[in-house]
Amino acid sequence: MKYVGVRELKNDASEVIRAVREDHAEYIVTFRGRPVAVIRPVDETVPGIGAERSTTYKRPSPEFWERLEALAVRISARINTDLTAEEMVAEQRRVL
Fold first, then answer.
1. Is the torsion defined by CA of 78, 83, 87, 90 positive or negative?
2. What 3-state DSSP class applies to 36?
């Protein structure tokens, strides 16, 4: 399996995807030298993956969005901060 850094992947994405598609190559994506993801060909025999996936997509129901909004309210009630979500994410990224 080949390694590809995030920056190299950004610059050479077309070539990497072509190699995966045509040569069935597999890549481990690294960020600052540490593995973070794997890119590999999709096995068309796996249910829910491949060409049939695009035809089986269903839009989320209104009930789904209501439950998601209720969850967001519950999460917000537990967060005791004056920071915005953007500020919290930026702060978390500084820690990592």
1. negative
2. strand
The tokens of 73 are what? 């309210």
Residue 30: DSSP 8-state: E
Beta strands in 21-75 (DSSP E): 27-31, 34-39
* Residue ranges covered by each domain of the chain: 1-57, 59-96
C-beta of residue 39 within 8 angstroms of C-beta of residue 16: yes
Q: Which residues pair with 2 in a beta bridge?
A: 27
> Could you tell me which CATH number the domain at 1-57 has?
3.40.1620.10
Q: 84 pLDDT exceeds 60?
A: yes
Q: How many residues does the chain have?
A: 96
User: How distant, in Å, are the alpha carbons of 1, 28, 32, 72 from that of 9?
Assistant: 15, 10, 13, 34
Q: pLDDT of 2-60, one tens digit each?
A: 999 999 999 999 999 999 999 999 999 999 999 999 999 887 655 666 555 555 667 88
